[in-house]
């Protein structure tokens, strides 16, 4: 498997981790959902992220999931989330998954970082912990971490830490950050790949600002692939039309604490996983929520037929 580079483009779907109704990892569904993502147009996968319920897995389970997915991907790139409160855990999991054939490691900022020097210094420590040559995806997700990475600090990280080859852009509002990065590159700064998260809710605008694609999840990953492809071809009107057809469900998935349950419900309904179960603590959808999702799905199908 090739390593992630600063030129990476396309859609790297954030994979769910399937569980049985009893809370055990559903290995058959894990194989099936990997195949599903690639069949629907994913260029790569990202596993053990926040929406993959990584904090609910043991270290041994995380390694086993990574090994299974990397093998199932058959040489297609797999990025592994290795974020942890301490550098020792990051190093242990990161080195293990790179030996398995991962394309790179995704790391976000712990909430304890409060100052610009701390943020800059942290990613230097991460790069040394993972070792030379390990590509790093910097996940900039202040809505979850509470850590704001300024444009200036991000620029210094890019300048000083060549192992950071990709930004997982999840700042909100953050469109201006993409524009500033691309302008800096036009003026001579090293280029990095920018893939965007937040459930894809701003994907057309992010692509127009210069993003290279998406690194997020959704119950219909083919929408992410279509929008990224169309935007890359310059057909922004068609990309927007396709996006708008799915937007009500994208919006519904954005509910804090409920979005993953919605995503898993849709994936189970589509046959990608065997159960919509979340590992405890975590609850499924109420009957009222299921009725709302079903209504959105029916309207989405109708609109897609109208768009042909």
TrEMBL record:
Residues that hold pyruvate according to the record: 215
InterPro entries found in the cross-reference section: Aldolase_TIM (IPR013785), DapA-like (IPR002220)
Name under which the protein is recorded: 4-hydroxy-tetrahydrodipicolinate synthase
GO MF, one annotated term: 4-hydroxy-tetrahydrodipicolinate synthase activity
Family from the record: Belongs to the DapA family.
Keyword Lyase among UniProt keywords: yes
UniProt keyword Glycosyltransferase present: no
CDD domains: DHDPS-like (cd00408)
Organism from which the protein derives: Alloyangia pacifica
Pfam family, one: DHDPS
GO cellular component, one term: cytosol
Domain of life: Bacteria
């Amino acid at each position: 498997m090739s390593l992630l580079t600063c030129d990476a483009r396309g859609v790297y779907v954030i994979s769910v981790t399937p569980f049985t109704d009893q809370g055990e990892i559903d290995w058959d569904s894990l194989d099936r959902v990997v195949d599903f993502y690639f069949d629907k147009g994913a260029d790569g996968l990202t596993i053990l992220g926040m929406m993959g319920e990584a904090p609910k897995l043991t270290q041994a389970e995380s390694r086993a999931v990574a090994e299974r997915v990397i093998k199932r991907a058959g040489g297609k790139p797999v990025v592994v989330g290795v974020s942890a409160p301490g550098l020792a855990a990051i190093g242990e999991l990161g080195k293990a998954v790179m030996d398995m054939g991962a394309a790179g490691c995704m790391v976000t900022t712990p909430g304890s970082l409060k100052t610009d020097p701390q943020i800059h210094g942290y990613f230097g420590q991460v790069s040394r912990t993972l070792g030379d040559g390990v590509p790093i995806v910097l996940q900039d997700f202040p809505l979850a971490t509470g850590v704001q990475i300024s444009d200036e600090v991000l620029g210094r990280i890019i300048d000083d830490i060549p192992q950071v080859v990709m930004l997982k852009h999840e700042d909100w509002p953050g469109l201006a950050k993409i524009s500033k990065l691309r302008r800096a590159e036009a003026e001579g700064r090293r280029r990095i790949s920018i893939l965007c998260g937040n459930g894809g809710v701003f994907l057309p605008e992010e692509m127009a600002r210069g993003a290279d694609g998406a690194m997020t999840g959704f119950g219909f990953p083919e929408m992410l692939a279509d929008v990224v492809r169309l935007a890359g071809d310059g057909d922004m009107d068609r990309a927007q039309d396709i996006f708008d057809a799915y937007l009500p469900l994208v919006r519904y998935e954005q509910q804090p604490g409920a979005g993953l349950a919605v995503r898993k419900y849709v994936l189970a309904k589509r046959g990608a996983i065997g159960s919509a179960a979340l590992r405890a603590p975590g609850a499924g959808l109420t009957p009222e929520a299921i009725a709302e999702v079903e209504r959105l799905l029916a309207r989405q199908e109708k609109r897609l037929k109208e768009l042909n």
